[in-house]
């Protein structure tokens, strides 16, 4: 856990840490909370990783704006959702990690089958609330992230992507300006966007098609069952480890994506079930990397690199990571 837990800001950063300090002497006075040297492992799906030099949880959008306006631009900021697509390296993240909590988790049903969700809202919750209002955003039901992460990653499954339902987002720039992002601004592509580093999305408006709430509910139940039958849903993972080869497209749409499956090329290279330390390629789904218990971030990353090497040796295919690796190795 962190070495200091301060509400209200205005703190001085004189506390010793393992990594080189990048924070200013004095932090902006905020309404949210600062935690210095905050371990991130317990916030991440894989339960690995070092500490954030500083974790900031803004109280609301105005608080986030003030913080970003006053924080020297030399300090890097990294927003996180629920870390369901991140390997946070064992040496931790320098600068400020921003995590949105209460104050960023409201859901509003709007005219025209639209939903506005604060970025801390879990995808599953957005899907359920939308379903109750007869709006089909069922694809979000089985993706474990928060809606800010879904927008940033263009999350999707079973042929539907966030880009397909995206209307607009609000965000705060690194200099503290509140902006509205259109679909063009997002630059959606396969499991990615073109947003600048340090930009923090605060809310998202999505539009689904209208349907009977019970039909949407049934669709979501089907999707959950399908997942449970084919993926290690009770293990600590980040979902797909690698992108499907040649699965890149300008639109991120399913009809644009090549058929080759990452799990198949991993199987062909004999890497199903392969392990390094506590990290393993799941015997159930070979493109899911799991923490069997006691894995370090280095175990997970090294296993991924070993898989990439073997796949290349076997089929001359270069797998690309889908899980983001952030921070520093210790
Ligand atoms: C079991 C399992 C199954 C999965 N299945 C799928 C799947 O079917 N489809 C799929 O697409 N993904 C899947 N994932 C991966 C993951 O859930 C998605 O990528 C998700 O959208 C990440 O959201 P997050 O809140 O966890 O983001 P994080 O992992 O915390 O962050 C991911 C990226 O988003 C950025 N980010 C997060 N919040 C913000 C914000 N507010 N503003 C700006 N940037 C932000 C971070 O900086 C980082 O770059 C799966 C993961 C697991 C564990």
Small molecules bound? flavin-adenine dinucleotide
Q: What is the rounded Rg?
A: 20 Å
* CATH C-level class of the largest domain: Alpha Beta
Number of strands: 20
Describe this structure in words.
The chain is an alpha+beta fold. The chain has 3 domains: 4-99, Uridine Diphospho-n-acetylenolpyruvylglucosamine Reductase, domain 2 (2-Layer Sandwich), CATH 3.30.43; 107-214, 2-Layer Sandwich (Uridine Diphospho-n-acetylenolpyruvylglucosamine Reductase, domain 3), CATH 3.30.465.10; 234-323, UDP-N-acetylenolpyruvoylglucosamine reductase, C-terminal domain (Uridine Diphospho-n-acetylenolpyruvylglucosamine Reductase, domain 1, Alpha-Beta Complex), CATH 3.90.78. 24% of the residues lie in helices and 26% in strands. The chain has helices at residues 61-70, 123-132, 147-153, 162-165, 183-186, 213-230, 262-268, 297-315, and strands at 4-7, 33-39, 51-57, 77-80, 86-88, 93-99, 107-110, 114-118, 135-136, 156-157, 160-161, 166-172, 178-181, 200-207, 209-210, 236-240, 275-276, 279-281, 288-291, 324-326. The protein has a 5-stranded mixed β-sheet with strand order 1-2-3-6-4, with no helix packed on it. A 5-stranded antiparallel β-sheet has the order 7-8-14-12-13. A hairpin with a 5-residue loop joins strand 12 (166-172) and strand 13. The protein is globular. The two termini are 18 Å apart. Residues 1-10 have low confidence and may be disordered. Flavin-adenine dinucleotide binds next to strand 4, helix 3, strand 10, strand 14 and strand 16.
């Amino acid at each position: 856990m962190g070495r200091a837990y301060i509400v209200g800001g205005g703190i001085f950063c004189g506390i010793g840490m393992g990594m080189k300090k990048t924070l200013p002497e004095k932090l902006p006075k905020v309404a949210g909370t600062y935690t210095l040297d905050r371990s991130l492992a317990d916030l991440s799906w894989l339960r690995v990783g070092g500490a954030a030099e500083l974790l900031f949880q803004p109280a609301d959008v105005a608080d986030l704006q003030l913080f970003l306006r006053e924080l020297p631009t030399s300090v890097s900021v990294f927003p996180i959702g629920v870390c369901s697509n991140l390997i946070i390296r064992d040496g931790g993240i320098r600068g400020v990690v921003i995590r949105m909590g209460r104050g960023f988790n409201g859901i509003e049903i709007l005219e025209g089958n639209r939903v506005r969700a604060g970025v801390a809202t879990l995808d599953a919750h957005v899907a359920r609330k939308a379903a109750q209002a007869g709006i089909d955003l069922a694809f979000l039901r089985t993706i474990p992230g928060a809606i800010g992460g879904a927008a940033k990653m263009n999350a999707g499954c079973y042929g539907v992507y966030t880009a397909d339902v995206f209307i607009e987002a609000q965000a705060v720039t690194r200099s503290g300006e509140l902006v509205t992002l259109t679909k063009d601004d997002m630059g959606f592509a396969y499991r990615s966007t073109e947003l600048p580093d340090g930009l923090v999305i605060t809310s998202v408006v999505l539009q689904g098609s209208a349907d009977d709430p019970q039909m949407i509910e049934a669709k979501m139940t089907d999707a959950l069952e399908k997942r449970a039958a084919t993926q290690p849903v009770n293990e600590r993972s980040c979902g797909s480890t690698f992108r499907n080869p040649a699965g890149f497209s300008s639109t991120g749409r399913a009809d644009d994506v090549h058929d080759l499956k990452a799990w198949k090329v991993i199987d062909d290279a004999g890497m199903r079930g392969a392990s390094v330390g506590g990290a393993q390629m799941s015997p159930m789904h070979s493109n899911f990397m799991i923490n069997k218990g006691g894995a370090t971030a280095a175990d997970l990353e090294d296993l991924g690199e070993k898989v990439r090497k073997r796949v290349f040796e076997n089929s001359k295919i270069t797998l690309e990571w889908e899980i983001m690796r952030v921070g520093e190795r210790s």
